[in-house]
Design a protein that fits this description.
The complex is a heterodimer of chains A (182) and B (162).
Chain A: H1 2-18, H2 24-32, E1 35-42, H3 43-51, H4 58-68, E2 70-79, H5 88-95, E3 103-110, E4 117-124, E5 130-139, E6 142-152, H6 154-159, E7 170-171, E8 174-175
Antiparallel strand pairs in A: 1-2, 2-6, 3-4, 4-5, 5-6, 7-8
Chain B: H1 2-34, E1 38-39, H2 44-54, E2 59-67, H3 77-87, E3 93-100, E4 105-114, E5 117-125, E6 130-137, H4 139-147, H5 149-156
Helix pairs in contact in B: 4-5
Classes of the chains: A alpha+beta (182), B alpha+beta (162).
Chain lengths: 182, 162
Protein backbone atom coordinates (compact mmCIF):
# COMPACT_ATOMS: atom_id res chain seq x y z
CA UNK A 1 0.00 0.00 0.00
CA UNK A 2 2.78 2.38 1.03
CA UNK A 3 4.68 1.54 -2.15
CA UNK A 4 1.56 2.22 -4.22
CA UNK A 5 1.17 5.66 -2.61
CA UNK A 6 4.84 6.48 -3.26
CA UNK A 7 4.50 5.30 -6.86
CA UNK A 8 1.36 7.43 -7.44
CA UNK A 9 3.03 10.42 -5.80
CA UNK A 10 6.03 9.98 -8.12
CA UNK A 11 3.71 9.88 -11.14
CA UNK A 12 1.55 12.82 -10.11
CA UNK A 13 4.23 15.15 -8.73
CA UNK A 14 5.78 16.08 -12.09
CA UNK A 15 2.29 16.87 -13.41
CA UNK A 16 1.55 19.08 -10.41
CA UNK A 17 4.94 20.75 -10.79
CA UNK A 18 4.03 21.83 -14.34
CA UNK A 19 0.88 23.56 -13.23
CA UNK A 20 1.09 27.32 -13.00
CA UNK A 21 -1.35 28.59 -10.42
CA UNK A 22 -3.11 31.90 -10.91
CA UNK A 23 -3.25 33.97 -7.69
CA UNK A 24 -6.74 34.31 -6.21
CA UNK A 25 -6.57 38.09 -6.73
CA UNK A 26 -6.18 37.55 -10.46
CA UNK A 27 -9.28 35.36 -10.60
CA UNK A 28 -11.16 38.26 -8.97
CA UNK A 29 -10.01 40.54 -11.78
CA UNK A 30 -12.63 38.97 -14.03
CA UNK A 31 -15.27 40.90 -12.08
CA UNK A 32 -13.47 44.21 -12.75
CA UNK A 33 -12.52 43.43 -16.32
CA UNK A 34 -14.51 44.74 -19.22
CA UNK A 35 -13.80 41.50 -21.01
CA UNK A 36 -12.35 38.24 -19.68
CA UNK A 37 -11.37 35.17 -21.64
CA UNK A 38 -10.67 31.75 -20.16
CA UNK A 39 -9.42 28.97 -22.43
CA UNK A 40 -8.85 25.56 -20.85
CA UNK A 41 -7.70 22.72 -23.06
CA UNK A 42 -6.95 19.88 -20.67
CA UNK A 43 -4.81 16.88 -21.56
CA UNK A 44 -7.86 14.69 -22.17
CA UNK A 45 -9.38 17.32 -24.48
CA UNK A 46 -6.13 17.65 -26.43
CA UNK A 47 -5.90 13.87 -26.80
CA UNK A 48 -9.49 13.83 -28.04
CA UNK A 49 -8.66 16.54 -30.58
CA UNK A 50 -5.51 14.69 -31.68
CA UNK A 51 -7.53 11.52 -32.27
CA UNK A 52 -9.47 13.21 -35.07
CA UNK A 53 -6.54 14.90 -36.78
CA UNK A 54 -5.58 13.07 -39.94
CA UNK A 55 -1.94 12.07 -40.42
CA UNK A 56 -2.25 12.20 -44.23
CA UNK A 57 -1.39 15.92 -44.36
CA UNK A 58 2.16 16.68 -43.17
CA UNK A 59 1.19 19.80 -41.18
CA UNK A 60 -1.74 18.05 -39.53
CA UNK A 61 0.50 15.11 -38.68
CA UNK A 62 2.97 17.51 -37.05
CA UNK A 63 0.15 19.11 -35.05
CA UNK A 64 -0.89 15.63 -33.93
CA UNK A 65 2.64 14.81 -32.76
CA UNK A 66 2.95 18.17 -31.00
CA UNK A 67 -0.38 17.76 -29.21
CA UNK A 68 0.47 14.21 -28.12
CA UNK A 69 3.12 15.52 -25.74
CA UNK A 70 0.99 18.25 -24.17
CA UNK A 71 -0.73 18.09 -20.79
CA UNK A 72 -2.78 21.23 -21.29
CA UNK A 73 -3.09 24.70 -22.79
CA UNK A 74 -4.45 27.46 -20.58
CA UNK A 75 -5.14 31.09 -21.49
CA UNK A 76 -6.46 33.81 -19.17
CA UNK A 77 -6.94 37.29 -20.54
CA UNK A 78 -8.48 40.41 -19.02
CA UNK A 79 -9.27 43.71 -20.78
CA UNK A 80 -9.98 46.77 -18.66
CA UNK A 81 -11.79 50.02 -19.34
CA UNK A 82 -9.15 52.06 -17.54
CA UNK A 83 -5.45 51.81 -16.69
CA UNK A 84 -4.33 50.73 -13.21
CA UNK A 85 -7.14 48.23 -12.63
CA UNK A 86 -4.74 45.40 -11.81
CA UNK A 87 -1.86 45.19 -9.39
CA UNK A 88 1.65 44.34 -10.64
CA UNK A 89 2.19 42.32 -7.43
CA UNK A 90 -0.31 39.79 -8.82
CA UNK A 91 1.68 39.51 -12.02
CA UNK A 92 4.89 39.11 -9.99
CA UNK A 93 3.23 36.23 -8.11
CA UNK A 94 3.09 34.36 -11.41
CA UNK A 95 6.59 35.41 -12.42
CA UNK A 96 7.82 33.93 -9.12
CA UNK A 97 6.58 30.51 -10.27
CA UNK A 98 8.66 30.55 -13.45
CA UNK A 99 12.13 31.12 -12.02
CA UNK A 100 15.45 29.34 -12.67
CA UNK A 101 16.71 26.65 -12.55
CA UNK A 102 13.52 24.97 -13.87
CA UNK A 103 12.48 27.90 -16.04
CA UNK A 104 14.40 30.28 -18.30
CA UNK A 105 13.21 33.64 -19.49
CA UNK A 106 13.94 33.65 -23.19
CA UNK A 107 12.16 36.84 -24.24
CA UNK A 108 11.57 40.00 -22.26
CA UNK A 109 10.15 43.08 -23.97
CA UNK A 110 9.45 46.27 -22.06
CA UNK A 111 8.16 49.37 -23.81
CA UNK A 112 8.21 52.66 -21.94
CA UNK A 113 6.31 54.27 -24.80
CA UNK A 114 3.30 51.96 -24.65
CA UNK A 115 3.78 50.55 -21.13
CA UNK A 116 3.74 46.99 -22.49
CA UNK A 117 5.68 44.28 -20.69
CA UNK A 118 5.90 40.86 -22.33
CA UNK A 119 7.87 37.89 -21.01
CA UNK A 120 8.23 34.40 -22.47
CA UNK A 121 9.53 31.56 -20.28
CA UNK A 122 10.63 28.06 -21.31
CA UNK A 123 10.85 25.10 -19.01
CA UNK A 124 13.82 22.93 -19.83
CA UNK A 125 13.13 19.20 -19.98
CA UNK A 126 15.35 16.21 -20.71
CA UNK A 127 16.60 15.45 -24.22
CA UNK A 128 16.62 18.96 -25.71
CA UNK A 129 12.88 19.22 -25.25
CA UNK A 130 10.78 21.86 -23.56
CA UNK A 131 8.74 21.01 -20.49
CA UNK A 132 6.40 23.97 -20.85
CA UNK A 133 5.98 27.52 -22.13
CA UNK A 134 4.57 30.47 -20.23
CA UNK A 135 3.80 33.87 -21.75
CA UNK A 136 2.94 36.84 -19.56
CA UNK A 137 1.78 39.98 -21.36
CA UNK A 138 1.03 42.94 -19.12
CA UNK A 139 -0.28 46.02 -20.90
CA UNK A 140 -1.79 49.07 -19.20
CA UNK A 141 -5.35 47.95 -19.99
CA UNK A 142 -4.86 44.29 -20.78
CA UNK A 143 -3.37 41.34 -18.96
CA UNK A 144 -2.80 37.94 -20.61
CA UNK A 145 -1.31 34.67 -19.37
CA UNK A 146 -0.67 31.67 -21.57
CA UNK A 147 0.56 28.39 -20.16
CA UNK A 148 1.38 25.40 -22.35
CA UNK A 149 2.14 22.43 -20.12
CA UNK A 150 3.77 19.24 -21.32
CA UNK A 151 6.64 18.11 -23.49
CA UNK A 152 7.27 20.18 -26.61
CA UNK A 153 9.80 19.30 -29.29
CA UNK A 154 11.29 22.60 -30.58
CA UNK A 155 11.90 20.98 -34.00
CA UNK A 156 8.17 20.33 -34.39
CA UNK A 157 7.44 23.94 -33.44
CA UNK A 158 9.87 25.10 -36.14
CA UNK A 159 8.24 22.76 -38.69
CA UNK A 160 4.84 24.27 -37.91
CA UNK A 161 6.05 27.85 -38.00
CA UNK A 162 4.04 29.94 -40.42
CA UNK A 163 1.09 27.53 -40.09
CA UNK A 164 -1.93 27.66 -37.77
CA UNK A 165 -0.99 31.25 -36.83
CA UNK A 166 2.30 30.13 -35.28
CA UNK A 167 4.76 32.93 -36.08
CA UNK A 168 7.46 32.16 -38.64
CA UNK A 169 10.65 31.03 -36.87
CA UNK A 170 14.07 31.84 -38.25
CA UNK A 171 16.70 29.11 -37.81
CA UNK A 172 20.33 30.00 -38.72
CA UNK A 173 19.10 33.03 -40.64
CA UNK A 174 16.80 30.88 -42.83
CA UNK A 175 13.06 31.04 -42.66
CA UNK A 176 11.43 27.65 -42.00
CA UNK A 177 7.97 26.63 -43.14
CA UNK A 178 6.47 26.27 -46.60
CA UNK A 179 5.10 29.64 -47.50
CA UNK A 180 6.47 33.12 -47.80
CA UNK A 181 6.80 35.36 -44.77
CA UNK A 182 3.54 36.60 -43.23
CA UNK B 1 -19.99 -13.46 -15.66
CA UNK B 2 -23.15 -12.70 -17.69
CA UNK B 3 -24.14 -10.01 -15.17
CA UNK B 4 -20.70 -8.38 -15.49
CA UNK B 5 -20.89 -8.53 -19.28
CA UNK B 6 -24.37 -6.98 -19.25
CA UNK B 7 -23.19 -4.29 -16.82
CA UNK B 8 -20.21 -3.50 -19.08
CA UNK B 9 -22.46 -3.27 -22.16
CA UNK B 10 -24.87 -1.03 -20.24
CA UNK B 11 -22.03 1.30 -19.16
CA UNK B 12 -20.67 1.50 -22.73
CA UNK B 13 -24.18 2.24 -24.09
CA UNK B 14 -24.78 4.89 -21.42
CA UNK B 15 -21.49 6.65 -22.27
CA UNK B 16 -22.22 6.45 -26.01
CA UNK B 17 -25.71 7.94 -25.69
CA UNK B 18 -24.82 10.44 -22.93
CA UNK B 19 -23.28 12.79 -25.53
CA UNK B 20 -26.57 13.06 -27.45
CA UNK B 21 -28.43 14.09 -24.31
CA UNK B 22 -26.13 17.02 -23.56
CA UNK B 23 -27.84 19.50 -25.86
CA UNK B 24 -31.35 18.62 -24.65
CA UNK B 25 -30.18 18.65 -21.05
CA UNK B 26 -28.60 22.11 -21.37
CA UNK B 27 -31.62 23.49 -23.23
CA UNK B 28 -33.95 22.03 -20.60
CA UNK B 29 -31.87 23.51 -17.77
CA UNK B 30 -31.97 26.99 -19.38
CA UNK B 31 -35.73 26.69 -19.85
CA UNK B 32 -36.31 25.84 -16.20
CA UNK B 33 -33.73 28.32 -14.82
CA UNK B 34 -34.93 31.32 -16.81
CA UNK B 35 -38.57 30.38 -17.32
CA UNK B 36 -38.24 30.67 -21.09
CA UNK B 37 -39.25 28.38 -23.92
CA UNK B 38 -37.03 27.97 -26.97
CA UNK B 39 -38.23 29.93 -30.00
CA UNK B 40 -39.55 27.82 -32.85
CA UNK B 41 -37.43 28.25 -35.97
CA UNK B 42 -39.18 27.12 -39.17
CA UNK B 43 -37.44 24.71 -41.61
CA UNK B 44 -34.77 23.85 -39.06
CA UNK B 45 -35.13 20.14 -39.87
CA UNK B 46 -34.63 20.88 -43.56
CA UNK B 47 -31.53 22.97 -42.85
CA UNK B 48 -30.13 20.17 -40.71
CA UNK B 49 -30.75 17.66 -43.50
CA UNK B 50 -28.91 19.93 -45.94
CA UNK B 51 -25.95 20.15 -43.55
CA UNK B 52 -25.90 16.37 -43.17
CA UNK B 53 -25.76 15.96 -46.96
CA UNK B 54 -23.51 18.87 -48.01
CA UNK B 55 -21.17 18.94 -44.93
CA UNK B 56 -20.39 22.69 -45.21
CA UNK B 57 -17.05 23.48 -43.54
CA UNK B 58 -16.87 19.91 -42.23
CA UNK B 59 -20.12 20.12 -40.25
CA UNK B 60 -22.20 16.94 -40.30
CA UNK B 61 -25.20 18.07 -38.26
CA UNK B 62 -26.34 20.76 -35.89
CA UNK B 63 -28.93 21.61 -33.28
CA UNK B 64 -30.00 25.14 -32.45
CA UNK B 65 -32.08 26.62 -29.65
CA UNK B 66 -32.83 30.34 -29.34
CA UNK B 67 -34.37 31.84 -26.21
CA UNK B 68 -35.91 35.29 -25.99
CA UNK B 69 -37.22 37.30 -23.04
CA UNK B 70 -35.23 35.48 -20.39
CA UNK B 71 -36.76 36.30 -17.01
CA UNK B 72 -33.40 37.15 -15.46
CA UNK B 73 -32.87 40.57 -17.04
CA UNK B 74 -29.25 41.01 -15.98
CA UNK B 75 -26.83 38.10 -15.82
CA UNK B 76 -24.45 37.86 -12.90
CA UNK B 77 -21.16 36.52 -14.27
CA UNK B 78 -20.28 34.30 -11.30
CA UNK B 79 -23.83 32.99 -11.05
CA UNK B 80 -23.85 32.20 -14.76
CA UNK B 81 -20.49 30.39 -14.48
CA UNK B 82 -21.87 28.30 -11.61
CA UNK B 83 -25.00 27.50 -13.60
CA UNK B 84 -23.04 26.45 -16.68
CA UNK B 85 -20.58 24.38 -14.61
CA UNK B 86 -23.53 22.66 -12.95
CA UNK B 87 -25.36 21.78 -16.14
CA UNK B 88 -22.32 20.86 -18.26
CA UNK B 89 -20.14 17.81 -17.77
CA UNK B 90 -20.77 14.29 -18.95
CA UNK B 91 -19.60 13.97 -22.54
CA UNK B 92 -18.73 17.64 -22.96
CA UNK B 93 -15.86 19.63 -21.49
CA UNK B 94 -15.77 23.41 -21.25
CA UNK B 95 -12.85 24.78 -23.26
CA UNK B 96 -13.60 28.49 -23.66
CA UNK B 97 -15.41 31.01 -21.46
CA UNK B 98 -15.71 34.67 -22.45
CA UNK B 99 -17.44 37.44 -20.49
CA UNK B 100 -17.89 40.92 -21.88
CA UNK B 101 -19.26 43.70 -19.72
CA UNK B 102 -19.03 46.02 -22.71
CA UNK B 103 -21.86 44.28 -24.59
CA UNK B 104 -23.22 42.21 -21.69
CA UNK B 105 -22.46 38.95 -23.45
CA UNK B 106 -21.15 35.65 -22.08
CA UNK B 107 -20.05 32.79 -24.29
CA UNK B 108 -19.23 29.20 -23.36
CA UNK B 109 -17.72 26.65 -25.75
CA UNK B 110 -17.78 22.95 -24.93
CA UNK B 111 -16.19 20.10 -26.83
CA UNK B 112 -16.69 16.35 -26.74
CA UNK B 113 -16.29 13.07 -28.58
CA UNK B 114 -19.03 12.24 -31.09
CA UNK B 115 -17.90 8.97 -32.61
CA UNK B 116 -16.09 9.71 -35.87
CA UNK B 117 -16.32 13.48 -35.42
CA UNK B 118 -16.06 16.09 -32.68
CA UNK B 119 -19.02 17.73 -31.04
CA UNK B 120 -18.92 21.45 -30.20
CA UNK B 121 -21.57 23.16 -28.14
CA UNK B 122 -21.64 26.95 -28.02
CA UNK B 123 -23.89 28.74 -25.54
CA UNK B 124 -24.21 32.54 -25.70
CA UNK B 125 -26.08 34.65 -23.17
CA UNK B 126 -27.00 38.25 -23.83
CA UNK B 127 -29.05 40.50 -21.56
CA UNK B 128 -32.43 38.93 -22.33
CA UNK B 129 -31.54 36.32 -24.91
CA UNK B 130 -29.63 33.06 -25.10
CA UNK B 131 -28.54 30.85 -27.97
CA UNK B 132 -27.31 27.27 -27.80
CA UNK B 133 -25.77 25.65 -30.88
CA UNK B 134 -24.39 22.16 -31.11
CA UNK B 135 -22.36 21.21 -34.18
CA UNK B 136 -20.77 17.92 -35.14
CA UNK B 137 -17.63 18.85 -37.00
CA UNK B 138 -14.65 17.19 -38.64
CA UNK B 139 -11.48 18.14 -36.75
CA UNK B 140 -9.28 18.26 -39.88
CA UNK B 141 -11.61 20.77 -41.51
CA UNK B 142 -11.83 22.76 -38.30
CA UNK B 143 -8.03 23.02 -38.21
CA UNK B 144 -8.01 24.25 -41.82
CA UNK B 145 -10.62 26.88 -40.89
CA UNK B 146 -8.51 28.02 -37.92
CA UNK B 147 -5.50 28.26 -40.23
CA UNK B 148 -7.36 30.19 -42.94
CA UNK B 149 -10.55 31.69 -41.48
CA UNK B 150 -11.03 33.83 -44.60
CA UNK B 151 -11.71 30.62 -46.59
CA UNK B 152 -14.52 29.63 -44.21
CA UNK B 153 -16.75 32.41 -45.54
CA UNK B 154 -16.21 31.22 -49.10
CA UNK B 155 -17.00 27.66 -48.03
CA UNK B 156 -20.26 28.72 -46.40
CA UNK B 157 -21.17 30.61 -49.57
CA UNK B 158 -20.58 27.44 -51.58
CA UNK B 159 -17.67 28.99 -53.51
CA UNK B 160 -15.11 26.64 -52.03
CA UNK B 161 -15.25 23.08 -50.83
CA UNK B 162 -13.11 21.95 -47.92
Amino acid sequence: MKNAIIMWAAVLMPLAAQEIRLPANLEKLAAKAEESVDVTLSGSMLRLAAKFISDKDADAANVRKLIAGLDGIYVRSFSFAREGEYNMADVDAIRAQVQPPSWSKIVGVTSKRTGDDVDVYFKIAAGDKLGGIVVIAAEPRELTFVSIAGTIDPDQLVELSGEFHIPRIQVNGKSRGRRGPR
Amino acid sequence: MTTRLLAAILIVCTVAFAGDWEFDRIVGAIESQYGAKRTHIPFMGLANLAVKVVHPAGASGFKLAVFEDLKSSRQDRIELDRFMNRISGGGLQQIVRVHSRRNGESTYIFMGDAGKSTKMLIATFERNEATVVEVKVNMDTLLKMIDKPEHAGRSFNGKEDW
